[in-house]
Amino acid sequence: PELTKKIIFGIENEYKFSAGVMSFEEHINQKQRDEIIEHFKKTFFCGLDENQYNLLVVEHQDKNRSELHFIIPRLELKNGLR
């Protein structure tokens, strides 16, 4: 979380990050969570290496649901471009 905050606060553009949530009607286990996050990264960051982006995912369970909240700084880490 601290690295993500540091990156976001260092961005000078108006739109500094994208955020969202993946919500599931049931509780997911750790294996399912890891598979979902890997699939998300392969889809959302297609063509990028892991050292080119930052992704913070926080799992939250409430009301018999699992939720994966994510925040992504709008910055390509290698070249510093949006």
pLDDT average, as an integer? Answer: 95
**SSE series:** HEHEE
How much β-strand is present in the residues?
25-35%
Q: In this structure, how is the largest beta sheet organized?
A: 3 strands, antiparallel
- Helix percent band: 25-40%
Strand order of the largest sheet: 1-3-2
Poorly predicted runs of 5 or more residues: none
What's the total count of β strands? 3
Query: So what's the overall shape?
Result: globular
The Rg value, from CA coordinates, equals 14 Å
Query: Total helix count?
Result: 2
Defining key terms:
82 residues, alpha+beta, three-stranded antiparallel β-sheet, globular
Descriptive notes:
The chain is of the alpha+beta class and 82 residues long. It contains two helices and three strands; from the N terminus they run H-E-H-E-E. It has helices at 2-10, 30-44; strands at residues 17-24, 56-62, 65-73. The protein starts with a helix and ends in a 9-residue tail after the last strand.
